[in-house]
Specification:
The protein has 57 residues and is mainly α. Helix content is 33%, strand content 0%. The longest helix is centred in the last third of the chain and has 10 residues, at 35-44.
Length: 57
Amino acid sequence: MRDENLARHAFHQVAAYDGPSIFLYDEHGCGIRHRDQLDRIVDESDDLWIVPADVHF
């Protein structure tokens, strides 16, 4: 694959981004960062969803 218009380079830069390692999110898309926050969400909700996701560039 040729790197036309530097597309491969751009995708590599996006994939190389080192952001926070948050794997759990609430219903608003905000990261669950603390155990207390997770416990509160679990206690307050009867219906929770676990949605597996895997993103590759």
